[in-house]
Amino acid sequence: MREAADTLNRWAREYYVLDNPSVSDERYDALYDRLVRLEKTTGVVLEDSPTRRVGGEPLKAFERYRHLKRLYSLDKAQSFGELREWVNKIEASFGPVEFTVELKYDGLTINATYEDGKFVRAATRGNGTEGEDVTEQVRTIRTLPLSISFKGKAEFQGEGIMRLSALKSYNSQNPEEPLKNARNGAAGAIRNLNPSVTASRRLDAVFYSAGYGEEDVAA
Question: Quick one: which of 92, 119, 128, 210 has the fewest CB in 10 Å?
Fold first, then answer.
């Protein structure tokens, strides 16, 4: 268990902090699921187990920002049996329910703050409570609205992504140092100290949740 936790923490740092993973998602997921099973079997969860954390420690090069409301991650289901077990728990508490299924965008989570309808800040998820201030980087994303019809202060959670067409275009223009994939392209751009690098990747922002809001959306 100790070895599995240490290995996963090292891989998680490569993925979330350094944006340079050394193993595939499948290999990480397999070891992670094995650790989850060991913890369930033994009833022991190490203090630094990756199952306790969201992931993505802030780099010291960025200023830290404390989210107005905690950002959580989603549990994964690797089989229909696991999904059925989760549904059974929900229905045991609330009765029969209906679900809406949506696509999972794979980029970097961003938490955008608006005050009186104006975009004022963006931060990474970080550890869920505190992230990195990437306002100037995210501001270069053209699909991010700089103003919205909203009174008071609000935080909106979404994903900074790099479309495959943008990845192909970037790699054709930078054959000496091509990006490995769209996810790394987006994460590396947003977490780059130079906003011009972010702008050069032609990212998009997709929002899916209002995490905090002082007032209702204006009619």
Answer: 92
Residue 187 lies in a domain: yes
Into how many domains does the chain fold? 2
44-85: per-residue pLDDT in tens?
Answer: 988 677 776 544 554 567 899 999 999 888 778 889 999 999
Please identify every residue annotated as catalytic: 104
Torsion angle, alpha carbons of 90, 91, 97, 102, to 10: 30
CATH code for the domain of 43:
1.10.287.610
pTM of the entire predicted model: 0.70
**3-state class (DSSP) for residue 2:** helix
> Does some domain include residue 96?
no
Q: How far apart are CA 128 and CA 124, in angstroms?
A: 9
DSSP per position, 133-152? B-HHHHHT-TTS-SB-SB-S
